[in-house]
Write a structure and sequence with these properties.
Strand content: over 45%
CATH class of the largest domain: Mainly Beta
Mean pLDDT: 95
Number of strands: 18
Shape: globular
Low-confidence stretches: none
Number of domains: 2
């Protein structure tokens, strides 16, 4: 065992273990579990084109409705990552008997969050600038990518209190379904999976419901207009703690044992 600068050089066995990340002397990817504290979230629901949902889902996932949502998070205190912001667009989906929500697009202000989401979950995360702001009597959420504000959502400030059970009226967004795709260095497919993860130890400190507006703007690198707003539905502003824990492999396209 070799130690220098207060760190221990990994053995081959250490490198082969789960949870290993590079650069090994200053790892980027957090090991499970890690905790999100006092996260502020604006969740906006809208009715959209069901054929568009079906088109965006990778087979064998199937749609469960005609509603989309976006969560715009202000992550105030997160293990490893620190404070950052995130946005997750979701649609209801199922794999066999497992129902949840599929994420066609995610945007984060954190390079650690982008790397973790893509390398571990298979989430299609990209770097951008989600924001959650209080402007007088209005809560405003926005998502900017390439200097273009592609999502703008609003709801009145804290008018109707609700319980935690009201937050998911259309699909179980705490169960996230993702398409994980990683290649070997020689171009051969290494990983092709449908993965699933569910948030754990969720504590909702407050939740408020209200009407909403949702405006989408075109961007070829974040094409949210492919889920057009046919009818804005409901918004929820909520504040919560939760833990990110290991998930599971639901489907392996390469036929590997899981």
């Amino acid at each position: 065992m070799s130690t220098r600068w207060g760190i221990t050089r990994p053995t081959e066995a250490d490198i082969a273990k789960g949870g290993f990340s590079t650069p090994w002397d200053a790892p980027m990817i957090p090991p499970f579990p890690f905790r999100f504290r006092n996260a502020e979230i604006l969740t906006l629901y809208w009715r959209t084109d069901p054929e568009a949902i079906a088109f965006l889902l990778p087979p064998p996932l199937e749609p469960t409705g005609d509603v989309a949502c976006v969560h715009i998070y202000k992550m105030n205190d997160t293990d490893w990552l620190g404070p950052y912001s995130e946005a997750n667009v979701m649609v209801g989906a199922r794999y066999g008997e497992r129902s949840g929500a599929y994420s066609p697009w995610l945007v984060l202000s954190s390079d650690v969050g982008v790397a973790h989401g893509r390398e571990i979950h298979g989430q299609p995360k990209k770097l951008g600038d989600p924001r959650l702001e209080m402007r007088g009597d209005l809560i405003v959420g926005s998502v900017t990518r390439n200097g273009i504000e592609v999502i703008t959502g609003t709801t009145p400030y804290k008018q109707t209190p609700v319980g935690a059970e009201a937050l998911a009226p259309h699909f179980d967004f705490a169960t996230n379904l993702n398409l994980k795709a990683v290649d070997h260095i020689d171009g051969r497919p290494a990983i092709r999976q449908i993965t699933s993860r569910k948030l754990a130890e969720v504590t909702v400190h407050e939740a408020w419901a209200g009407p909403c507006t949702v405006d989408l703007r075109g961007n070829a690198q974040l094409p949210v207009t492919r889920l057009p707003v046919l009818e804005p539905l409901t918004a929820f502003y909520w504040r919560a703690d939760f833990t990110l824990v290991p998930g599971e492999i639901l489907h392996d396209y390469l036929g590997e044992d899981t």
